Amino acid sequence: MENQVVITSKNMIKKFGDFVANDHLNFEVYKGEIFGFLGANGAGKTTAMKILCGLLTPTSGEIFVGGFNVYTETEKIKRSIGYMSQKFSLYEDLTVFENIRFYSGIYGLSDADIKMKSNNLMDKLGLSAQRNSLISSLPLGWKQKLAFSIAIIHDPQIVFLDEPTGGVDPITRRQFWDLIYDAAHNGITVFVTTHYMDEAEYCDRISIMVDGRIEALDTPFNLMKTYNSENMDGVFLKLARA
Amino acid sequence: MRTIKFIIQKEFKQIFRNKSMLPIIFVVPFVQLIILVHAATFEMKNIDMYVVDNDMSSTSRQLISKFGGSPFFRLKKTTFSIKEAEAALLSDEADVVMVINSGMEKSLVRENKASVQLLVNAINGTVAGISNYYVMSILASYNKDLITKWYGVAQSSQIKQININYSFWYNPELNYKTYMVPGILVLLVTIISLFLSGMNLVREKEIGTIEQINVTPIHKYQFIIGKLVPFWIIAMLELALGLTLGKLLFNIPIVGNIFLVFAFASVYLLAVLGIGLFISTIAHNQLQSMFFSFFFMLVFILMSGLFTSVESMPDWAQMLDRINPIYYFIRVMRMILLKGSTFKNIVSEFISISIYAIVVLSLAVWRYRKTV
User: Fold this and answer.
1) Alpha-carbon distance B223 to B280, whole Å?
2) ipTM reported for the complex, 2 dp
3) Which fold has domain A5-241?
4) A41, B52, B108, B333: which one has the fewest Cβ atoms less than 10 Å from its Cβ?
5) Looking at residue B43, what is its pLDDT?
6) Quick one: pLDDT at residue B161?
7) pLDDT for the residue numbered B180
8) Nearest residue to B268 via CA among B180, B223, B311, B331
């Protein structure tokens, strides 16, 4: 790993009234790595991710994404990231191609690029026959893969995935992770939240959040060693119950 | 520019793919136009009348037959009982009761004067006033007949009085439809554009796609314009269709320049769509948005001058109407279509609505947050 930092967070704090959603988060994410963001529901994962994407303004902290300040340069950040939210983000009443065209269009891709990229993308996902099918007619797994591919259609530096595999069967999840590896291989940094512990093991490094704080941050291997556990499930349970 | 093009393209695709929306946009308003124009009328026809004739003279009978011959009155019953007539008034059988006391003819011949009593159901003041006026004119004309009969033509024309000669301008036949069609058309175009734009953005909030839009480098104004243009085009088309129907079905006069109507509409629609999008940025779901839109719409319509005259509202209400876009458009529509007003005549309305559009659109862009 070349250890070039693409995300820095120093003492990130986000409060909603009295409730502290993110409590002094400190971490760095390196270029090209798959960074897993783990935690129970309500631990503050999504909040932190929204701050990094420029969807939420943090209460305090020094935070840089892709070299840009999250307070003042959110529009520049948005140009260099991709994002796939928990909620389903494609237009159900548009076709596969129309969704691709729309999102590539608003990212400013040229007509020639749109044509080329959409063909490549549909080939890769095996969706060429469904080019003119409405999204609503596709199975969930296909939608998720398509949503991910669209989130990186403009070749962002970093892609944020918020529980991308929720409700998807194991085989499709495996295929989804192939896409993630592929993206990382092409130099895109992947920042992913999940609560599937088997997925955590696919990550290069993971951080585990409990009640708004980061309790542990290391490679899965080191974490299992530190917490004396055979798998990530054990690590997580030890941390969450402590 | 390119970004806006992609948003517009997407919006159009979504509108035309929504099979339940299309009839709402293109059929319902015109069905409403046809129904409303016939139903929303102040024209007085078929006033139900009871007559209590206790005189039973030739004069009283002649008088009654005068009413029978009028297209406005429907003689339901002639009775001798005032009680029965009052009961009919109470049960809405009768709108007007005329009571002729016995000895009416005698008194007319001997003392040169006589009186009849009129009982009018005045729950609706306007209707009561108009029916009263009709009865009066029939009585007046009967008076004239009597004088002519008894004293001769020469005598009758010697009675000195000031005569008023009417001439109704701009709507000489006092055709109610001529007055209503332009107004109702404004309402339909407004309702469609307000509700469509009010629901649209908030729908993206509900299904979650707005979050995806918000992480893109799209500018706020680009997004708002992209949302605005499709609805603007649809509403303009709708207006054109409505005017065509109005001309074909109701033969409404188009005295002024029709392009002036469209010029005004083009600015007016920006204001209405701006309100809708503004509501959309505030509301959290489509239900809330509907509720907001409905509330504004109701106040706007009732104060618009469609049914009632704005000039007779209290001063504060007239001031309030300055922020009612419908008021401007109905006024301008009627001025141009019926009176043939030119740009010079509507310049102040034009300026007002332009300022209006700029203000609400700025509000909408300002209030649309790319952060949650």
Assistant:
1) 13
2) 0.86
3) Rossmann fold (3.40.50)
4) A41
5) 65
6) 65
7) 84
8) B331
B209 and B132 in a single domain? The answer is: no
Q: What single-letter DSSP state applies at residue B323?
A: G
Pairing of strands A68-69, A60-65: antiparallel
Coil, strand or helix at B75: strand
The pair of three-digit structure tokens given for residue A204, joined into one six-digit string: 């290069």
Residues B109 and B211 grouped into a single domain: no
Would you state the structure tokens that stand for residue B122, as one six-digit string? Answer: 């005045």
**Mean pLDDT confidence for B282-311:** 89
Interatomic CA distance for residues B337 and B178, integer angstroms: 9
Residue B229 and residue B263 share a domain:
yes
Parts of chain A with a pLDDT under 50: 1
Q: Which two tokens stand for residue B164?
A: 């008023």
Q: B42-46, B136-140, B242-246, B323-327: which has the minimum mean pLDDT?
A: B42-46
Same structural domain, B141 and B185: no
- What pLDDT is stored for residue B175 in this prediction? 74
Sign of the CA dihedral running B226, B227, B232, B238:
positive
A contact residues 78-107, partner B, Cβ 8 Å cutoff = 78-79, 81-83, 85, 87-94, 98, 101-103, 105-107
By residue range, what is the domain housing residue B130? 47-158
Is A63 strand, coil or helix? strand
What does the pLDDT average to over B15-37?
85
Q: What is the pTM of this model?
A: 0.81
Please tell me whether residues B241 and B282 are part of one structural domain: yes
- Chain B residue with Cα closest to A87: B208
Q: Is the predicted pLDDT of residue B275 greater than 90, yes or no?
A: yes
Asked if A50 is an interface residue toward chain B (Cβ–Cβ < 8 A), one would say yes
Q: Is residue B227 part of a domain?
A: yes
Indicate whether B372 belongs to any domain: no
A56 and B372 in contact by Cβ < 8 A? yes
Mean pLDDT of chain B: 87
Q: How many domains does chain B have?
A: 2
CB distance B327 to B305 below 8 Å? yes
- Which of B126, B158, B190 is a domain's end point? B158
Which B-chain residues 235-294 have CB contacts (< 8 A) with chain A?
Answer: none
- In tens, the pLDDT along B290-300 reads 999 999 999 99
Per-residue model confidence as pLDDT tens digits over B83-133: 898 898 888 888 889 998 888 888 888 888 888 888 888 887 877 888 888
Taking the Cβ of residue B214 and every Cβ of chain A, the question of whether any pair is shorter than 8 Å is answered with yes
Check CB contact under 8 Å for B215 and A53.
Answer: yes
Query: Among A79, A91, A105, whose Cβ lies nearest the Cβ of B3?
Result: A105
CATH number for the domain spanning B137: value is 3.40.1710.10
Whether residues B209 and A98 touch (CB distance < 8 A) is answered with no
* Nearest-Cα residue of chain B relative to residue A55: B371
Q: How far is B281 from chain A, CA to nearest CA, in Å?
A: 16
Q: Please report, for chain A, the start and end positions of each structural domain, with discontinuous segments joined by +.
A: 5-241
Q: Which residue has the tokens 């419908």?
A: B326
- Residue A117: predicted pLDDT: 92
* pLDDT tens figures, B155-202: 555 556 677 777 777 777 667 778 888 888 999 999 999 988 888 889
Q: Which residues of B touch A52 (CB under 8 A)?
A: none
| Residue where a domain terminates, one of B158, B184, B202 | B158
